Structures are given as C-alpha cells and as structure tokens.
Amino acid sequence: MAHDMTVQNLFSVKGKVALVTGGSRGIGEMIAAGLLANGAKVYISSRKAQQCDEAAQRLMQNYGGECISIPANVSDLEGIDALVAEITKREKHVDILVNNAGVSWGAPLEEFPEVGWDKVMDTNVKSIFFLTQRMLPLMTSRATTEDPSRIVNIGSIDGLSTPTFETYSYGPSKAAVHSLTKVLAARLRKRNIIVNAIAPGPFPTYMLSTGVGGGGDVEATDWSTVGQMNPSNRVGSPEDIAGLTIFLCSRAGAFTVGEVISCDGGTLLGR
C-alpha cells in the first residue's frame, strides 16, 4: 500500500483547533503564528486582556486565519476553569493544547522569597496539570488512534541542566514539567492524546531579556551579542520553535510520545 509521504500531508495542521497559553508574546506568540500560518484555528490566552486582544489581531493581520483571544490567569483554578468554560462555549473539540504560559523569579539565594517559589510553581507546573485535566473532554472529543490530539508542554533547558541565573524555582519547575510530560503521556496515549515537551534555549523573549540586562525590552535587547554565546551563533527564531511544534502536532510526530526535545542551538552541549 502506498503512503502519502508529501510534506503537505506529513506536516499538516490545517483545520485543527489549538489553544496556546501565554500566547500574547514570546515563544507562545511564535507558536501561535506557525499554527495560524498553516491553517489551524488558534485560541490564545494570557493574563493581560489588552495584550492578549492586541496579539490576536496582530497575528491575524500577519498570518491570516482565525485567532481568538481569551484572557485568563492559568496560575489558579478559577482562571483555568474560566478559560475552559469559554472555549467549551465556542468549540466541541480542541485538537492541540500548547501549555506555554510561564514565569520566572530571580533573587539571591539568601533573599529568595516564598512568593517567588509559589508563583513559579503554580504557573509553570500546577497550571499544566489542571488545564490538561479540565481540557480532556474537549481533547478526546474527536481524537482517534490514527489522528490523536496533541499536547505540547513548554519546558526549558534550565530543567535539563543547571541554570545560569539565580532563578531557584524556575529550573526545578521546568524539570517538573518534563517529568509531568512523561507521566501524562503514559496515561493519555491510550485515550488518543499524545503528550510531548519542548525544552527551549535562548529565544528573543521578554523573560530572557530581563535576564541578560535588557529590562524586558525585547526590541532593544542586543540579541546578536546574546547569540554569540550559543554554538549556533544566534538565538532561536520563530521558525525554530514553530517548526518543532508543528512536527509534534502533525502526522510526522504521531509516533513520538513522552519526549522532551531540546531546541537550543546546542547550548546544552556547552554547559
């Protein structure tokens, strides 16, 4: 029997319905852009309503398709339930969930506060578990063995090796994301949901800008200098993170289960 080995078939996400948390900027916006550009209907969420709404409009202007903003704070159950309720009103199924919302907190070891621990763990770890839990009815709705739904959790290379910065809760939170990915993958594959994680390295984001002295101003940060510290001599691009996500969410990635794939230009090799 002949198989359709065309790129159009292998890497298609056309007609899929996706939710990207933390989708108003940074890696989340890059992933949303890639899904939109390839024919998916994309919902994005973030805490700040105006930023979320503006990002959805910007994404549609640049990439076409349909991008819907649902502002929500996924670090607590109230926000998660509100987000799921709103999507359930609009959709009978969701095919792709990208758990990207994340925060960090930096402080010297002796001064590191409890709030810096709890906020990071709640946003980066607890939100993934409980949003996934509450999204299961939508994600199993039209999933099949041949065409499973996909969950992509965004971890970090800081969860795979010792972080550079004094962000004591961030690396452990991302290590927990990687572990949770495997736990969920083992449970959900038989329910026709595939779970994987991506561990990004340096990308031009608000979070990294604050770490390298850019103060969160992504446009003003000298990314070429940051990139010179990477074996690839650059920081990551939208194509890098969107391409890997599309692979995991398409036919091409349908036999890849429970993996944590670094996307870092070789950073880990030099650590």
What's the gist of this structure?
The protein has helices at about 5-10, 25-35, 50-65, 75-90, 115-140, 170-190, 205-210, 225, 240-250, 265-270; strands at about 15-20, 40-45, 65-70, 95-100, 150-155, 195-200, 260-265. The protein has about 270 residues and is α/β, with parallel strands linked by helices.
Q: Going by CATH, what is the homologous superfamily?
A: NAD(P)-binding Rossmann-like Domain
Estimate what percentage of residues fall within beta strands: 5-15%
Shape: globular
- Give the low-pLDDT segments: none
- Report the major sheet: 7 strands, parallel
- In the CATH scheme, the class would be Alpha Beta
Order of helices and strands: HEHEHEHEHEHEHHHEH
CATH architecture: 3-Layer(aba) Sandwich
Please give the number of β-strands.
7
Mean pLDDT level: 94
Distance between the termini: 47 Å
Structure description:
The chain has 271 residues and is of the alpha/beta class. The chain has one domain (8-201, 236-266): Rossmann fold, CATH 3.40.50.720. The protein has ten helices and seven strands. The chain has helices at 7-10, 26-37, 49-63, 77-90, 114-140, 170-188, 206-211, 223-227, 238-249, 267-270; strands spanning 17-21, 41-45, 67-69, 96-99, 149-154, 193-200, 260-263. It has a seven-stranded parallel beta sheet with strand order 3-2-1-4-5-6-7, sandwiched between helices. Helix 2 crosses helix 9. The radius of gyration is 18 Å and the shape is globular. It starts with 6 loop residues before the first helix and ends with a helix. The mean pLDDT is 94.
